[in-house]
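Just wondering, does anyone understand these tokens?
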Amino acid sequence: MPLTLTVLGTASPHPGPDRPCSGYLVSGGGAEVWVDAGPGTFAALQRHTDPSRLTAIWISHLHADHSADLLSAAYAFAFGGMTPHAPIPVYAPKDCARRLAGFFGRPDVGFLKGVLDFRDLYDGHDVRHWNLRLTARAVAHDTEAYGLRAECQGSVLAYSGDTGPCPALAELAAHADLFLCEADISEHRDGEQVHMTPEDAGRVARAARVRELLVTHAGPTLTREAATARAASASGRPTFAAVEGHIHSA
């Protein structure tokens, strides 16, 4: 199976009609990985695969617009008749399991151990599922956050997660076939470097010599069309907007 990215949601910082928050399905090498679980993405995921058959779930950071639908998944898997054949690995920052348990008023997620298997991410975390390799790099955000590099049989997909400009991002995206990058803000203010402008995304794409740039997570001060046009002017690479339901090959 070729390495593909299915866009489930792109909205920031809250979902809109027919536009969930951040979430993607990465497929390749016999594996299917739900990458980021923003509100609304669990429903969108069901249009493209049976969630109980997921190989893994991968969460870039624990802000609600990237992780809140883990609660929906937990209800579906534990109580909704969508029980997986084996616990699904959840790769996420270290506090993820505790936060999810808090929604249920439980001290820990032991009651979910039959459906979800939480595993802490760290800088350099590297795991292989079938022929799909997933590598995490710590990126610059206002909470513990990671970008993702997915590799399958010579194809490379890189995902920024939420981040400001940082050296790790260019390393993560180096020579990627497809670079999925946030462009949340129109401009940096007061030296804040926790999100990317469209120009930032374009400059990283150019420096990393990616084949294609896919712009996502445009915030409320931008339209995705404007964000994509601005990123394209800086990237010198084919640049497209991430749109719900679209499928891209790396």
Summary: The chain has a mean pLDDT of 97.
